[in-house]
Amino acid sequence: xxxxxxxxxxxxxxxxxxxxxxxxxxxxxxxxxxxVKRIVLxxxxxxxxxxxxxxxxxxxxxxxxxxxxxKAINYDKFPASFIKKMIKKDISLIAMHTNFDKSDLNRxxxxxxxxxxxxxxxxxxxxxxINESFEDFCIKLKRAFNLESLKVVTCNRDVxxxxxxxxxxxxxxxxxxxxxxxxxxxxxxxxxxAKALQVAMVDITHFDSEKFFVDALYEKLNSLEIEIQKNMNxxxxxxx
Length: 240
Description:
alpha/beta
């Protein structure tokens, strides 16, 4: 199957024009005219994955391999070291990042992980309602995301309106209206602002909120007549 055919299929699912200006979703490595034998879905690329991939594979990831312009192709440095391996093995890469966040990933997490009804979506932010204590809600979140612990900013005893942004969305805090904001990569100053705004925050982590990319996209590729494999990344962080 030609990469161009797969690219067009993906563009119909989640238009690449939806991506943010700073993003680099789309074809990162390869040619639209290339033929591929299989598709592998993965949240990210790592060296182990590249070593295991068979030649003539199209890798579809959430995060782009190339974000900024490359001034040199130094094989001793990332990402050129990965690109060299990919070219040698005829591995192509398409990234579906902020376009897929907006079109699918937030909704998938809400419906299939949290099992809530979506009441509103605005760009990167999705809203739903619950009526329970913040403590009980946090216990449910730990189970849903399979987390041993949660980093939280407590502001209210009870929660009704919740906002969700998978990945790293704390910079959106000032523009949303909710009792509780779920996102990843919450920093100290984000927490201080949340306290001032009286908006509870729960850090569902960047990895654990976006690891569902593979399953979310896999569901939408069933009609493609090509072998499709899943690669489930491991969180690069460890706890002691």
